[in-house]
Structures are given as C-alpha cells and as structure tokens.
Specification:
Shape: rod-shaped
Number of helices: 3
C-alpha cells in the first residue's frame, strides 16, 4: 500500500487473513481478522446418479421387453435388467443420503467458521478497548506523579520559609565586663604594682591614697 493512503483497515502483509489499521502516517498495533463473506448454502444438486440409473434401467427394460415377445416378464434379460435396476436404485439412494449428510456437515462447519470469525473479532475489539484503558491509566498516573512532585516542591518551599522565620536572631554583642577594680592598701602597694600615681577613675584609686584630695594619689 502506498504511504499516502488514507486511514483505514488494510490487508496485513505479515499475517494472511488479517487486517491492520493504517492511521494515515504509520501502521498501528490494531489488528482484526479479515472479513469473510458468509458462506452461501449450497443448493441441493440434482441426483444425477439416481436419474442416470433410472434412465439406463428404463432403456434396458425397454430393450428386454421388445425382444421378449408376448410375455416379457419371463424373459431372462428382463429379469437380469430388473435386478440390476434395483441394485442401481439402491446404490443411488445410498449415494444421495451420503451426499445429503456431507452437505449438512458442510453447512454446520460453515456456521462454526462464521461464529469463530465473530468471536475473534470480539476478542480483537476487547483487546483494543483494554489497550485504550491502559493508555488512559498510564496518562493519569503520569499526571498524578507530576502533581505529587509539584506538591512536594511547594511543601519544601513552605518548610524553608517557616525555618527562616522561626530561626532566632543572633544575640546582640554584650559589652565586655570591665576588669575587676584593683585595690591598693597604700601607696607602697600601688608603686609595687606599677600603678602610681593613681588618678581618679583609675582602677584602685581611693581617697586613702589621695590625702590632699587633688584627684591624684601616690604622687
């Protein structure tokens, strides 16, 4: 088939008696049995053997009668022909019965073939429907997975925001504690510590070191 053919069912080149669907661009996986014409009932054939046997018997009987004179029933030829005619009629009747039985069997087989073709078509239709449902289910699964991924991304973003909001600010720098005030019992101790003279505001300054009250002790 030419590749420019319109979409439809065409003979499958790989499987005799099967058709494959062409979507207009490429072959698909959809197949179906090729439609078969319903077998026609064969007409009952004229029982030629029976007719021929009767005709031959009648001819022989006429010949025998013609040559037997006034009493043909006593002629040996008449008797022989009569016996042969009876045998021929019996054989023709048996043949007719066998032919009728064979035709009935053929009709039954034709009906079975038609039923099998219908069942096969039903199976193909069911498989096509199942494939369509599976495709739809796969598409729904992909959509659900995408939605789940989006929700996880949003949840992560919310958790990040909550973490940044709830995290406490770093504590403010505390002023360093001042060194403990020194104490000098007298100016000798201050001089020994290398702190003399001790001015007002310096560690260890005290009135007992500044006797003149000028703000400088141990001058």
């Amino acid at each position: 088939m030419h590749m420019a053919a319109q979409a439809g069912w065409y003979d499958d080149a790989t499987v005799p008696g099967q058709e494959r669907y062409w979507d207009g661009e490429a072959w698909t996986e959809q197949v179906q049995p090729k439609a078969q014409p319903h077998p026609q009932r064969r007409k009952r054939a004229v029982r030629l053997p029976f007719v021929i046997a009767i005709g031959v018997g009648a001819l022989l009987l006429g010949v025998a009668i013609g040559g037997a004179g006034s009493d043909p029933t006593r002629s040996a030829e008449y008797l022989a022909v009569s016996e042969e005619l009876v045998v021929a009629e019996d054989a023709s009747a048996e043949l007719a019965e066998e032919t009728a039985a064979l035709e009935e069997e053929l009709d039954a087989l034709s009906d079975e073939v038609a039923q099998l073709a219908e069942q096969q078509q039903a199976v193909v239709d069911a498989e096509t429907a199942v494939a369509a449902r599976e495709t739809a289910a796969d598409e729904r699964d992909a959509e659900l997975q995408q939605r789940e991924s989006d929700l996880q991304g949003r949840e992560t973003a919310v958790q990040t925001r909550e973490s940044s909001v709830s995290q406490p600010a770093p504590p403010a720098a505390q002023p360093s504690a001042s060194a403990p005030s020194a104490y000098y019992e007298n100016c000798t101790a201050a001089r020994n510590a290398g702190a003399a003279p001790v001015r007002s505001g310096d560690p260890g300054y005290g009135r007992h070191l500044d006797r003149d009250g000028d703000g400088v002790g141990c001058e």
